[in-house]
Structures are given as structure tokens and as C-alpha cells.
Amino acid sequence: GDELLAKLARDATFFVRAHESNEMQPTLAISHAGVSVVMAQAQPRREKRWSEWASDKVLCLLDPLDGVYNYLAQQRCNLDDTWEGKIYRVLAGNPAKHDL
After folding, report:
1. Closest CA to 77 of 53, 52, 96
2. Shared-domain flag, residues 62 and 83
3. Dist. CA 74–CA 25, nearest whole Å
4. Which of 10, 14, 59, 93 could crosslink 79 through cysteines, CB 3.0-4.6 Å?
5. Within this chain, do residues 34 and 50 fall inside the same structural domain, yes or no?
6. Which parts of the sequence belong to the Exotoxin A binding domain (predicted)?
């Protein structure tokens, strides 16, 4: 029992490594007792994920008064400088700019 646990503890490793390509891609590798798992981030940039969500349009729908004001004043809905835009930028990265 104790020998097996000691062997498993010796064989277990945990490390994070990054492969160099065009961008740093963080990779998480976990190995324990002959079983290993390697995980990589599917989309390396938060900005790309944000742009796929078309989040600027979603923000305009969530706060229609600011959205209408920005559309009339700037001919586009851009809520980056509002508190909503700042919260979403922190959570999901830099928003993509979309014209309505």
C-alpha cells in the first residue's frame, strides 16, 4: 500500500509549458501514474472570441438608450467607454467594432 502510493507520488508530475510558434500558446500537461493529459487553449486570443460573439451589438441591445445615443452621435453603436463596455472588456477582451 505505502510503497505503491510512494511510487505514484514519484511518477506524478505537473507542469505548464509554452510552445513557440507565431504566438505563445500556453499548454497544460499533467502526467500521473502512466496516464497523461495535454490541453491547449482552443482560441488563443480573447479579442477573437469577443468578435465572434458580435458583442458590441449585444451591448447595444442590453442598454438601448446608450446604443441609440451612440448610433445617432457616431453612426455606430460603440459602448466601449461606458461602464458596460468596460466590464465586458475585462471579462472577454477587446470588443470588435461593428457598424449597425
Report:
1. 96
2. yes
3. 37
4. 59
5. no
6. 1-100
What is the rounded CA–CA span in Å between residue 44 and residue 60? 26
Tell me if 84 is assigned to some domain. yes
By C-alpha distance, which of 15, 19, 52, 55 is closest to 37?
Answer: 15
Phi, psi of 37 (to 5 degrees): -135, 135
Q: Of 11, 17, 12, which Cα lies nearest the Cα of 29?
A: 17
Measure CA 45 to chain center.
6
24-32 and 35-40 beta bridge pairing:
antiparallel
pLDDT digits (tens, 9 = 90+) for 63-79: 777 777 777 777 776 66
Residue 51: partners with Cβ closer than 8 Å, 6 or more residues away: 95, 96
User: Is residue 36 domain-shared with residue 58, that is, in the same domain?
Assistant: no
pTM of the model: 0.29
Q: Is 23 helix (H, G, I), strand (E, B) or coil?
A: coil
Q: What is the pLDDT of residue 30?
A: 60
